[in-house]
Amino acid sequence: MKKEIIFLLILTGLILVSCNDEVDIKTSSQGDYVLYCIINSDTTFHTAYLSKSYDVSGLDPTENTTDPSLTGAEIKVIYNKGNYYFKDSSVARTDSSRYTDAFDFYYNNSLDVKSRTIYDTPDSISIVATLPNNKTLTASSNTIPTGDMRFSKYISEFPGEDTSNFFEFVWVFYSTKNSLDDYYFLPVLKIKYSVLKNGVSTTKTAKVYYMTYSLNDTDVPVYPTITKKNYISYNKQFVEDVFNSISEGDDNKSDYTIHSLSFSVIVMDEALAAYYSASNTFEDEFSVRVDAADVTNIKGGYGLFGVYGTKTKNITLTTTYIAQYGYKCGF
Q1: Strands 149-153 and 82-85, how do they pair?
Q2: Measured distance CA(18)–CA(289) in Å, rounded
Q3: 3-state SS assignment for residue 31
Q4: Which of 33, 59, 191, 259 is least surrounded by CB atoms within 10 angstroms?
Q5: Coil, helix or strand for 294?
Q6: Residue of 204, 154, 194 lying closest to 316 (CA atoms)
Q7: What is the pLDDT of residue 18?
Q8: Would you state the pLDDT for residue 256?
Q9: CB atoms within 10 A of CB 49
Q10: Which segments in the chain show pLDDT lower than 50?
């Protein structure tokens, strides 16, 4: 959450930057507001963050030590002919090096937009934030029909009987009314495991990379990024390398318990895809700059209103396979 908020503050200051040297980037952003809300289709708990731009003596935004967040606004999401109002709340900060007061946000715990059935199609969803000064920020999107999504190609067991060194995942929609071209995808293959140390068990995940590149005679792992493609291929050897790496340097292999191996594809709308491309890296195939106007989709201000959902395929592991690493089985 901290990373997301920092990005929004930077976005507020940079969003109006142009190539014109005569533009005063500080005065041009005065009075601007930022609204941030991501709707996760797999939960009924959602949060929103509202803030105002601020000025500093120089060009370093970290000079500001007064929390720019705004409270007292009315925020609602309109979905399926209903109004879902968000409540004010706050939590203590885990990092008080810059802001010492509580972190203010808004939340709703009853908004359910999960797609559960095949042949489901998107529904419109929008957000309206009315500030104490009656200024209004709005944005709209559509829900994600993950219930209508299926894996047309996948691996059901690892390593399985297939002697090939590679395996592939392909995802499609059942209904012809849903188009893959309307969405962006983030594939994730991960191992869920736990480590027991000093009587305390800690659950962790390890993501599997899908390719490597050579740097100074060292193979550097490359993880999937957001894409328009509806398929991805993995090398079995990379999965085995990750299984080995989770206990690297630790001779007590029995302290490790493997719980699952699963593949997920996170399906998101265009606005959310653009945001993550800007805030994570500039190396994927459709990167955008943080000072690009299309990073924001909020009318009346700046920020993001986006929607995403997840489709997951669990992959069977055998006790014999896990035992060869010296690990315990938690499945």
Answers
A1: unpaired
A2: 12
A3: coil
A4: 59
A5: helix
A6: 154
A7: 33
A8: 98
A9: 22
A10: 1-30, 281-294
